[in-house]
């Protein structure tokens, strides 16, 4: 019944405002004006009736014309889209500008979670879409809407195309803090962790370095900023085993996983597994494909960890990186149980898209003198609690902001 009502509502052109105006105009023309001999309200009622009738006829004819045109068009959709990035699909429709009072709208019914914008181009309207969630799809359904500029009448119809469409997660930005870690020779024993060792080496200062390590005496003599960097007595190999755990609102974490995979932060000999896959990916391309397919596993995050670990040589499964969603769920117990079962040295990376508000200053004087910065921990109220729960289990946690590359 809901689907039937939705279809009738889309086909029936008169909106609530038009029905009210039509009823009021009919009452004026046929009931009030003849009795009162009112020569002002009578023509006003006639104009209102005529306006509703003309808009209805134009919307019906415009919808019929647009439908004929769209049926003859090709699907015109790229094989791959990327979340958060506006992409022109090459799909164009008539603007119906010659109808004077008609506007055209376009949206996607399937897949959900896409924003559609129409841009004027050569007398037509070009489609630009922005995906919000990753996934793989075999068809798309577009909804076309024709309405008058007065908002009285509207009609819409759906058209389906069979396609092979993959929406990949947008990669997180590699910020200066992460780049500085790489330049210092980080071995990713903790991918976003601190440097360890004796401060005996020197190098040029880079953005993100601690000011405590600056050689101020050298700067006073040469005006060159040099910092001490740790020299490790041992050179452990980089971690090359990583798992992605799907869950609610995990798009930013998927973007963080893509950054680590494609930037080579997990080493050249990569073994990456995302939820929904058991065979580890050995290349960045295969890892991204697994991230796309993991969108269907949000309700089963972490269930395939043991099966994926069984495909990896126990000699390599001594440490790993876990990319987890920023929203707590049943996946947390599975992740903790997995780490304990295999006695792993694991690091956790959480991706977020928003930065929280700056904390309130303790006094008015502090608020006048200092402006506190927003932190990633305040991005959402539950993130701090999730982080504390994971760290209480002995798992070091880093939060990565996808847009700026900020790490905390």
Keywords, please?
408 residues; alpha/beta; Rossmann fold; 3 domains; five-stranded parallel β-sheet; four-stranded mixed β-sheet; 11 helices; 33% helix; elongated
Task: Give a written overview of the molecule.
The protein is an alpha/beta fold. It folds into 3 domains: 2-168, no CATH class; 176-231, no CATH class; 241-401, Rossmann fold (3-Layer(aba) Sandwich). The protein is 33% helix and 26% strand. It contains 11 helices and 14 strands. It has helices at residues 2-11, 16-36, 41-71, 176-183, 216-222, 251-262, 284-293, 305-309, 331-342, 364-369, 381-392; strands at 80-82, 87-94, 102-110, 114-121, 124-131, 135-148, 154-168, 198-204, 226-231, 241-244, 271-274, 319-324, 345-352, 397-401. It has a 5-stranded parallel sheet with strand order 11-10-12-13-14. Strands 1-7-6-3 form a 4-stranded mixed sheet. The chain has a 3-stranded antiparallel sheet with strand order 2-5-4, with helices on one face. A hairpin with a 5-residue loop joins strand 6 (135-148) and strand 7. Helix 2 packs antiparallel against helix 3 (41-71) and helix 6 (251-262) runs antiparallel to helix 7 (284-293). The two termini are 50 Å apart. 31% of the residues are buried.
